[in-house]
Amino acid sequence: LSPGAKMGCFTFIKVMMILFNLAIFLSGGTLLGVGIWVKVDGESFLNIFGALSSSILQVVNVAYLLIVIGAILLVIGFLGCYGAQKESKCLLMMFFSVVLIIFIAEVAAAVVALVFTGLAETLLTGLVTPLLKEKYGVDATFTEIWNVTMTEVHCCGLNNYTDFNNSYFYEKHHSYPRQCCNMREPCNSTLAAETGVEGCFHQILEEIRTNAGVAGGVAAGIAALEIAAMAVSMYLYCRLDEK
């Protein structure tokens, strides 16, 4: 290619890099704002979005999840957009490094989730079960999220009804959540065992297996975008030496 064509190609990729990362930056700001809204006023969020808010992903604290994802996207968007606009090798390398770390973390998480399902369940149990014991029935937003999730997904706790043993809710009401007994009350250990409602982790795992094609397509699309972003940032980084 002639020097002019190379410069035109460089400029085009630079502009695309800026626009792409500007979109990421704005998306991150939006997610961060929604996450803060859910944290501050979760009940109104649930009322507005209804069934949508009962997504199986809300087994975790959706507010903190949105805040973390939003903050990460803000950082990535800023590094990519500002680094390309200023033609800063330092910022472009930081952008590449952050995206690479996220890509590696996603691959590792996928391996754990798909190959070491038992380990994933153990990790989730260690994180989520203590929250159920301490916050279910105490924190209104946390309780509402779990109630909607257990009702819509037809599950009980993370593993099963035993997640609520020695919990604040059980000590106060001497009963498990009615979802653990197919909405029958009082939900004692005998009825819960007879009903055999599965934990939300197992239900989510089954849902993922049922929609494995969609989940795999989304994951592949995200991975392709990350690889493309790393390739473009490295191209701009290397081309700056030739300018």
TrEMBL record:
InterPro entries listed in its UniProt record: Tetraspanin/Peripherin (IPR018499), Tetraspanin_animals (IPR000301), Tetraspanin_CS (IPR018503), Tetraspanin_EC2_sf (IPR008952)
CDD domains assigned: uroplakin_I_like_LEL
Main location: membrane
GO cellular component: lysosomal membrane; plasma membrane
Pfam families to which the protein is assigned, alphabetical: Tetraspanin
Transmembrane segments annotated in the record for this chain: 12-38, 58-79, 91-116, 214-238
Assembly: Interacts with SLC19A2. Interacts with NTRK1/TRKA.
Function (record text): Structural component of specialized membrane microdomains known as tetraspanin-enriched microdomains (TERMs), which act as platforms for receptor clustering and signaling. Participates thereby in diverse biological functions such as cell signal transduction, adhesion, migration and protein trafficking. Regulates neuronal differentiation in response to NGF by facilitating NGF-mediated activation of NTRK1/TRKA receptor tyrosine kinase and subsequent downstream signaling pathways. Plays a role in the inhibition of TNFalpha-induced apoptosis.
Protein name as it appears in the record: Tetraspanin
Gene of this entry: Tspan1
